[in-house]
Design a protein that fits this description.
about 130 residues, 3-stranded antiparallel β-sheet, 4 helices, single chain, about 35% strand, alpha+beta, globular, OB fold (Dihydrolipoamide Acetyltransferase, E2P)
């Protein structure tokens, strides 16, 4: 199981990379493995202000459809347009080319509630 040390995580199996006030978000290697082959992502929240833990989109896999939750509140400033034609990038490279959205963080203190790599590993091992 790949759990990069430089990222933060959520209990909903999303990863967060924070640079200055911008958070890049995707789903974890564990999540994409559980979902199976991803066939479609619906993200219609570009330029929207979305609160912490609110739904920002959905991911559709062969097995199921799952909501995607905001790991921190803020404005969705970019979506990964490559996923429109190649949703399988989330399966193939969840921490790289498979990123989903970028957020301009409203309140940096919300990042303190994110899980460390070790905490996330403990969550999925339990």
């Amino acid at each position: 199981m790949n759990i990069p040390e430089e990222l933060k995580y959520t209990e909903e199996h999303e990863w967060v990379k924070i640079q200055d006030n911008i958070a890049t978000v995707g789903i974890t290697d564990f999540a994409q493995g559980e979902l199976g082959d991803i066939v479609y992502l619906e993200i219609d929240t570009l330029d929207s202000e979305i609160a912490l833990n609110e739904v920002f989109g959905t991911v559709e896999a062969v097995k199921t459809v799952s909501d995607l939750f905001m790991p921190v509140g803020g404005k969705v400033i970019e979506t990964n347009s490559n996923l429109e034609d190649k949703p399988e990038l989330v399966n193939d490279d969840p921490y790289g080319e498979g990123w989903i959205i970028k957020i301009n963080i409203s309140d940096l203190s919300e990042t303190e509630s994110l899980l460390s790599p070790q905490d996330y590993k403990n969550l999925i091992d339990s």
